[in-house]
Write the structure tokens for this entry.
Amino acid sequence: MNKAMDMCALLLLTLTLVIAVLLVFMVGPTNPLTWSMVGVAVLIPFIRRRFKHRRRVDWKDAYSVGIDSIDKQHKNLINLINMLQTTVDYSTGEEFERECLAAVVDYTKTHFVYEEGLMSKYGYPDFEAHKAQHQKMIDKISDLMAAYEEHPESAMKDVLGFLKQWLIRHINGTDKQYSEFLLSKGAH
Ligand SMILES: [Fe+2]
Ligand SMILES: [Fe+2]
């Protein structure tokens, strides 16, 4: 799908440039119509880049759980997801795409182990429920990884959609619930 959209943008850009060149010969280089086509040609890559940027996740202060070590890990996770999105947007090749996907999955698991370690260490009352949510996410990712082996392109879209939606929802909801408790116990 992304490759098809890239091809469309490239075709549109080529077509616009061809029309602009033809207009130079037909109506002259100073005609407003010629400059309009040149303007459109200049705008196409810009609009394409803006459209791609929209698919990224940006860290917001509102996502902070107030515990530095965890905020840092959440930021790293967002960076890894954005890197994975970039591999898809710019078709960087299957090998790099797979490496990025593995890095996101590994880091997610590492982060969960860290969070669970803190919750367990300080006796967080909702530890089991929180841990169950992490496990649910790992199970879902395993299913998506299996689907990725069958249909890489369509499954990658689902992986990215799930990661972004789940991550923000989990950070902003479930993770924030432990903030007050862990901070009162001295977590940092
Ligand atoms: Fe988290
Ligand atoms: Fe969590």
User: Anything to note?
Assistant: The first helix runs from residue 2 to 27. The CA atoms of residues 2 and 19 lie 26 Å apart. The chain is about 85% helix and 0% strand.
